[in-house]
Amino acid sequence: MTKDTHLQPQPQLQPQHAIPCLFMRGGTSKGPFFKAEDLPQDKGQRDKVLLSIMGSPDKRQIDGLGGAHPLTSKVGIVSKSDKAGVDLEFLFAQLQPDKDTVDTTPNCGNMLAAVVPFAIETGMFVPTSDTTTCRVLTLNTDMLSDISVETPLLPKASNASQGSRFVNYSGEARIDGAPGSSAPITINFLDTAGSVCSSLLPTGRVKDRVRVVPTQDLSGFDPFDIDVTCIDNGMPLVIFKASDVGRTGSESVAELNSDTELKTKIEALRLQVSLLMGLGDVKTKNYPKMTLVAPPVNGGSLTTRSFIPHVCHDAIGVLAAVTVGTACVLKGSVCEGVAVIGEHDSVVVSVEHPTGEFSVELGLDPKNSQSVTRAALLRTARLIMKGEAMVPAHLLS
């Protein structure tokens, strides 16, 4: 006997919902940017929408905009600010290709570079001079930064109204990890110490000696002792010498990603040290990042290999570079004797990584050798696409 299907409730057919977005590259990362007002205000519903847009969880992210890599599984959410002295507010969301997580805890200095261009492109901020500087509050960690972009007048032949300005993406600035050259975007971080942790040095020490032991979940290695510097100047990092884990620090990304023994040791260290840093259980968190350091090989200040936290980064994150640079100028850190650094009130730390180098300018307090007063760097960005992200209707019903 067949069922009388006409008596069964039928699902309501609805078209997909369109959400305006710009797809942008910020530094060496990329992803969709949204106005906060265009996304659901409920956090749970918003996260479901973002997962759908990016195509997670799926290692290829074949049904979304994600690029099957953590660096291309990022989202920017921007709004005007009503706080005194602040122009824009930025919420960064880190997704993972094969997980259903949306992490808004850490910062991302690369995606931060695209915030002001996004605001200008969408009319949230109107430029009035050849260089536009906005004060941006990153909501993830309440971090303030001044971001400057080039905004020249449109050519007279343009159909736009007289006096209109545009974001210039063309220029001679180059950053390793992004092809070609672009217009420079300057980011001056105003207060980055203790972005996620309680302070710059969350353990209260510039260097800690830690004994790492196997666990039921992470085994296959003998217990070992290792010196680490736990530091947070924009990004929580655990820094250690590559030589202390039997590596050179010059290994390729592919070599390190296939090094199961090393990755197991690093994860065991991460889970253990996070407790010392006051971060609690970080099994499902993207921080702290794990960074191997070694002497420079290409004329920089030091060589790095950064795990984010389980995959070796093709380069190094903006705020991770700031934090590594800070560790280089702190006496007694694990970088001492490894990094090549000058002694001045303002120093430039050239952080070498697998695809080039990242220079960070640090201002030092002449009265306190353990205090960094300023961190500035150069990034680039580009608008790749304007359009609408399509979301299944049931996620917004």
Outline:
With 397 residues, the chain is of the alpha+beta class. It has two domains: 17-184 and 381-395, Diaminopimelate Epimerase, Chain A, domain 1, CATH 3.10.310; 208-374, Diaminopimelate Epimerase, Chain A, domain 1 (Roll), CATH 3.10.310. The protein has helices at 43-54, 109-112, 115-121, 253-257, 260-276, 318-329, and strands at 17-26, 29-35, 74-80, 88-95, 102-103, 131-138, 143-150, 185-189, 208-212, 224-232, 236-241, 289-294, 302-307, 346-353, 356-365, 368-379, 381-391.
Describe this structure in words.
The protein is of the alpha+beta class and 397 residues long. The protein folds into 2 domains: 17-184 and 381-395, Diaminopimelate Epimerase, Chain A, domain 1 (Roll); 208-374, Diaminopimelate Epimerase, Chain A, domain 1. It contains 6 helices and 17 strands. It has a 17-stranded mixed β-sheet that branches. A hairpin with a 7-residue loop joins strand 12 (289-294) and strand 13. The longest helix is centred in the C-terminal third of the chain and has 17 residues, at 260-276.
Question: What features would you highlight for this structure?
Answer:
single chain; 397 residues; alpha+beta; Diaminopimelate Epimerase, Chain A, domain 1; 2 domains; 17-stranded mixed sheet; 17 strands
